[in-house]
Amino acid sequence: MLKTIIRHGCRLRPALNMRLPTSTLNTRLHTSSLSKANPHGQIWPCVFVSRRTSILEQNIKDAGQMRTPPPLTPRDIESRVLRICNDYDKIQEAHKNKITLATHFMNDLGLDSLDHVEIIVALENEFGFEVPDADYDKLYTIKAVVDYLIKRMNIVEHKKPVVSSASDPRYDHHHH
Amino acid sequence: MSLAARIPHTLKQVRPVLSTDHAEAKRRVLNLYKIWLRQIPYIRVDYIKNNWTEPRLRDIIKENFMRNKDVTDVRAIDLLVVRGQMDFVETAEIWRQQHNVAVFDSTKNTYKKKPASFLERFYEGY
């Protein structure tokens, strides 16, 4: 049983496959080449199979990494902005995690315009684009920041697809 | 009619250095502050002997900006901004030495302070 498996494994090698129809002593050839490759003759197909499976697993892993991430929702933006503001040390000193969407940086938290710029720089680092200086005076509350980011990044809330037993409405046009 | 009366009113206005009003000057200041903030990790590496942490560097930069917080003249603000930009270029291009940047940090500034009280001035020989 094991020997036949080994032989089948050998036939998968392209070089031997090419030689197969021409050579009359193909069984001899297999055994001889096997014994030349390694004396026991059992290790080689195992190595072959394990290498092949490892390549396959790597491919599967790569495919998983290349999958596009789920689209950002307004709720994601909100939570990320709140996390950044909570991490900022001067806010931590003043109001520990009492920040809501309506919080005003200057009136409620007592920050000055330089602190405001620091928060904007942290936001730029998080979201990866630059906020032009003309927009600074629009971003005084957390709600305004979230709205601004949603507008800048073109984030739309996608509705969840409704699963139903009804036929696909796209194809109904042909029938009517 | 005297000459002063015939000069048009617009000529009496001061020519601006860079900014025409306070809003523009403020924008320039905030831009300069942002540039300095963005430079913080590089300052840490370039002047590594000063052994600054990032929060400390942020405090230093803010302290240097707040030193001029009471300046209200737009032209004066513009000149300070220009000086800040020149300081920035010198720091970013490593035209300064380690100790020369340490001057920004008030805790590392080892320049001898001028005596203030009477007795100190007396000891110094004023």
UniProtKB/TrEMBL annotation, chain A:
Pathway: Lipid metabolism; fatty acid biosynthesis. The keyword Isomerase does not apply. Its main location: mitochondrion. The keyword Lipid biosynthesis applies. Gene3D superfamilies: ACP-like. One of its GO terms (molecular function) is acyl carrier activity. Keywords: Electron transport, Fatty acid biosynthesis, Fatty acid metabolism, Lipid biosynthesis, Lipid metabolism, Mitochondrion, Phosphopantetheine, Phosphoprotein, Transit peptide, Transport. It is found in: Mitochondrion. Residues 75-153 form the Carrier domain. It holds the Pfam family PP-binding. One of its GO terms (cellular component) is mitochondrion. Belongs to the acyl carrier protein (ACP) family. Carrier of the growing fatty acid chain in fatty acid biosynthesis. HAMAP family: Acyl_carrier. This is Acyl carrier protein.
UniProtKB/TrEMBL annotation, chain B:
It is a peripheral membrane protein. GO terms for biological process: response to oxidative stress. GO terms for cellular component: mitochondrial inner membrane; respiratory chain complex I. It is found in: Mitochondrion inner membrane. The keyword Transit peptide does not apply. Residues 27-87 form the Complex 1 LYR protein domain. Keywords: Electron transport, Membrane, Mitochondrion, Mitochondrion inner membrane, Respiratory chain, Transport. Its main location: mitochondrion. Belongs to the complex I LYR family. Accessory subunit of the mitochondrial membrane respiratory chain NADH dehydrogenase (Complex I), that is believed to be not involved in catalysis. Required for proper complex I assembly. Complex I functions in the transfer of electrons from NADH to the respiratory chain. The immediate electron acceptor for the enzyme is believed to be ubiquinone. Mammalian complex I is composed of 45 different subunits. This is NADH dehydrogenase [ubiquinone] 1 alpha subcomplex subunit 6. It comes from Rotaria socialis.
